[in-house]
Every structure is written in structure tokens, then in C-alpha cells.
Amino acid sequence: MRLQFILSEIGIGLRRNLSMAVSVILVTFVSLTFVGAAGLLQLQIDAMKDDWYDRVEVTIYLCPEESDAATCAAGETTEEQTTALWDELNSEALDPYVAEAFYESQEDAFAAFQERFADEWWAQGLTADQMQASFRVSLVDPAQYQVVADMFTGRQGVEDVRDPRAVVEPLILVMNRLSLVAAGIAGVMLLAAVLLITTTIRLSAMSRRRETGIMRLVGASNLFIQLPFMLEGAIAATIGAALSVAGLWFGVHYLVEDWLAQSIQFIPYVGTDEVWLLAPALVGIAILLATISSVVTLSRYTKV
Fold first, then answer.
1. Diameter of the chain by CA atoms?
2. Where is the protein found, in the record's own terms (predicted)?
């Protein structure tokens, strides 16, 4: 009987304040979509960092015949210098930092270049003599690239030491800032959702002050009186969360997996599995919003 009464009260409240309930659903949907997008963007950043950092190689470019670098004043790197650099790369001092190192001659560099750019018209006139010999160094911990870079920068026979992180990290920084912007917008929208849910519950409680007064006179507890109002807000917020999860799923499935992943294939993308991973958190946030709004509102507006 009590359950049937509570359900009937929820139905009455939703019908009386249908437009406000729809507003709660929509604002919760929009706000949690931003929250989910920020979470997916952060997961995307983490996936890219893990994938790209695993591929990080420090490249030690040796001096070509003509170079303006001060370390190449004596001309092209000699065999003795190359051997000394190789021995140092394989020394015990660098063993904790270097996972693997190999020498790429001009011929090897030219073969790799031709394999990658064989169909490009501008690559047809290049020869092996125009390529640059180098050492390719894979690291045990990509975060320690500076140790290897510092050891070989400025050495005679070494023109330059480069690390792809110089290109990757600015992109990661931009994406992190976009994630913060999305999180900021989500925070504003969540505040709007709390205020709107609070208003909806307040209007519903005020419109039924007579009923709540009668219930209090017959000995109903505070929880029994307040529960229908709390559930109204929770139901509306949960529907908004469900719509948010559905919107994120369709967006990731069709825009990321079916389109973006087919167009740009060298980046590891988040998928619908990550959406389902975030779904419980989004529903939990929706219920938390309704709970906070109920606690703030009901203690005042259900008093008679």
C-alpha cells in the first residue's frame, strides 16, 4: 500500500510539473554529455600518451659532409667517432635507460624514405648521399629521454639529437586544455542542473502543501513525506543521464569508430567500451545531483 501510494504521488508530481521535469531531463542530459565528453577526451589523451610514448625514440643524427653545426667542423663523422658513440650507447652507464639501439646508415635511411614516400613526386630526385646517418635509440622509460639527449648533445661527430616528444607534448598540452575547458563547461551545466532540480522539487512541494500537511497530521514520517519528491528529481535526472550515455555512445560509434578511425589510422581512439565504462559514473552523478537538490529543498518546503 505504501509503495503504491508513493508511486501515485510520483506520477501526480510529474504530471503537475511536466514542463519542469522535461527541463530537468534536458539540462541533465546536456550537462552530463559535457561531463562524459570531458572524461572521454581525457581517456583519449591517456591512450595517445601511452601509445606515442611507447614509440619514442631518441635519434642521434651524425654529421653529414656539409653541416653548419659547431660539432661538425671537422666534416663528416668518422668511423672512429661512430664506433665510440656506439660503444657508449651500449655501455653500462646507459644500460638502465637504453632498451635498444641500432645504427641507420645513409643507405638504410634512403631505403626507409623510399618505402614511405615512393609515390611522392618531390621524393624522386633524392639519392642515398643526401640522407643522414643516425643512431635510433629506444628507451626503457620514455620520460628519461633527457638523460640520453644530454649525454650526446654537443659531442663531436653529432650534429643533432632529437626526440619526438617535442612534437607530441604540445599536442597533448592542447588536448589537456580542451579537456579542462570541457570540464569547466560541464561544471557550469551541473550547477544549472542542481538549481533547476531544486526549483522543480520546490514547486512540486509547494503545490502539494495541503497533502503533506494531512500526511503529517496522521503521523507520516519525514522520509515518507519527502520520498516522492526525491524520487521525482532522481527519475528525471536518471532519464537525462540515460540520454547522455546514449548520445555519447552514438557519437563515439559513428563519428569516432566508423569515420575518424577509418580516416586517420595511426592514432589509438577511444571506443564504445569507454562509454560504458563512464556510464555508471554519469548515472551516479545524476542521482547525486537529485539527492543534493532534495536535501537542500525538502527540509524547508515540506514543513507545515
1. 101
2. Cell membrane
Distance of CA 51 to the CA centre of its chain: 14
User: Is the Cβ–Cβ distance between 207 and 69 less than 8 Å?
Assistant: no
Query: CB within 8 A of 95, min separation 6: which ones?
Result: none
Nearest to 259 by CA among 24, 251, 86: 251
Given a cut of 50, whether residue 36 has pLDDT beyond it is: yes
Q: Which architecture characterizes domain 56-163 according to CATH? A: 2-Layer Sandwich (3.30)
Q: What is the pLDDT of residue 165?
A: 67
What φ, ψ does residue 59 adopt, rounded to 5°? Answer: -105, 120
Q: How far apart are CA 149 and CA 145, in angstroms?
A: 6
Give residue-wise pLDDT tens across range 208-244: 666 665 555 555 555 555 666 677 777 888 888 999 9
| Number of helices followed by number of strands (H, E) in the chain | 10, 4
Contacts 24+ apart (CB under 8 A), 295-302: 296/198, 297/198, 297/201, 297/202, 297/205, 297/229, 298/201, 298/205, 298/226, 298/229, 298/230, 301/201, 301/202, 301/205, 301/206, 301/209, 302/205, 302/212, 302/222, 302/225, 302/226, 302/229
Q: Which residue in the block uniquely carries the three cell numbers 589523451?
A: 45
Torsions phi, psi of 215, nearest 5?
A: -60, -40
* Three cell numbers written together for 165: 616528444
